[in-house]
Amino acid sequence: MNMIVAVDSNWAIGNKGSLLVSIPADHKMFRNETIGKVVVLGRRTLETFPQKQPLSGRTNIILTHNPDYRVGDALIVHDIDELMNELGNYPDEDIYIIGGASVYELMLPYCDTVHVTKIDHEYEADAYFPNLDESGEWKITADSDEQVYFDITYRFLKYQRT
After folding, report:
1. 59-105 per-position pLDDT tens digit
2. What is the span of the domain harbouring residue 147?
3. What is the structure's pLDDT at 50?
4. Nearest Cα to 46, choosing from 25, 26, 67, 72?
5. Domain count of the fold of the chain
6. Which residue among 15, 56, 101, 154 is buried most deeply as judged by most CB within 10 Å?
């Protein structure tokens, strides 16, 4: 199973319900990586999307505690057991956990690959991803050249569980 996330230099991922920064090449990489695949996300993350609708061209699985929640053609699950049961219908390599912070934390133990856009900047933030560099369980297996968008430098990294 995969995760995909953009983090700043402190592993921050968001502030006040929004992404820290919007980088077109990051969005393109995200789309290319997840199109035709399964994306798993929390309801609050979905509600940050345009028109608060599921991502097109993907199977969207939304994790929410609300038993009455429905949105578009998304599959809705309410707890980890229901989620894991649903994920059993798909190949592990086609599953991408895409946020937010509580869903990342919940699902990290089940993932073996994390695609990280690492932004060389510190933003004001209130949501974080676990720092994979401080964990002995993860190693970088792919590292892009440094990229630049206006004054923002970043790299695409791939971490794999050791």
Report:
1. 999 999 999 999 999 999 999 999 999 999 999 999 999 999 999 99
2. 2-161
3. 81
4. 72
5. 1
6. 154
